[in-house]
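Q: Fold this one first, please.
A: Sequence and structure below.
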Amino acid sequence: MAETWIVLKFGGTSVAGRSQWETIAALADERRSQGFNVLLVCSAVAGVTNQLTALAINPDQAELLEPILEVHRTLGLDLGIDEQDWLGEAMQRMLLCLDNLRRETGPRLQAELLAMGEWLSTRIGCCFLNKSLDANWVDAREALEVAQETDLSPARRWLSAACVPGEAWWR
């Protein structure tokens, strides 16, 4: 196994359809053949973060959820991914986020909902990649370690306080 890692980052338009995911697969396969371990970092599909932001601001307007799901249903169909591989868990997570936001507002809970854009694109994308590559999906919130810092700006201090090492703050 390779010891050197390479990170490939793809933005919203780069994860929006089959041809884009075929490019991602080809690039990952090429880097692997060059001896690298490959870490893919992918954004939410273009436009989804804006839709999730509207939903986070208006959690009682559940009808805002449908266009978000439709974008991902379309992507899944384009990639040949069965909805049962992602939709049930996605719905459960999003509805829990909305329930929490209805009871309590704030940046932490809004961020939890906004993170669903990346969750959706990466879960569906990983299913596609597994058709030709050996890919593993990892939730970044479980893989990253939070370290408390000193001398922070007020915004960074709030984020640091919200992320207590060893605790899953998004659940």
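Q: Good. Now the second chain.
A: Here it is, same layout.
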Amino acid sequence: MSTKKITRREMLKLTLGGAVGLFVAGTTGCQTPAPTVAPAQPKATSVPVPTTVPAPVASATPVRRTLRAAGIESANVLPTNPDHNSGIFDVYETLTYRDEKTGTLLPRLAESWEQREPTVWRFKLRKDVKFTNGEPFNATAVQTAVTQIIKPEAIARTYMGDLAEARVVDDYTVDVVSKSADPILPHRMTFMFVAAPKWLQSTAPEVVASTAVGTGPLKLVEWSKGQY
């Protein structure tokens, strides 16, 4: 086998060529990769935030719901014969009431009260209160309630002590008078329902016994005795 001699010049070319190739390969292998540029994000659309929240539109239609109450006796809605189990306490209201947990006496239809004399308690009444038939609540309504509850046939009379009368001082002030000194008279007022005075005086007793016109949050719409 013949061997071809390589001249010095050819050897130099091979050597330089190999060196250049190695340099290029080395440079390419150690190159720092170009930084990756994240694509530009689209700008968020600006949505204006309302500075005020629109008020809900109130419904002009009254809401009618049903209250079911069960008891061992038939209900009685006479204002002078309060039935504690019939739910009538939310139809009629009283001048005062007791907190169920603490027993503290609190104002209801009366705003405040003070003992003016041993037999006289003066009550300041709430204003802008109406009965469900449109009659205004005032001192005359309280006077009528007192007149009704001291009648002999009024069962609630037993809670009233020596209650004698009510005197109108002005539209929203009334003096409740007893025959003898009564330091707990404001507590007795938790048992006196106040009904619409004109309705009470002009309505037959049997009708009053099956209907109710008060100032409470509930209104007696229909009552079928023994049914609902």
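Q: Anything worth noting on the second one?
A: The helical segments are 8-29, 139-149, 185-188, 197-202, 205-208.
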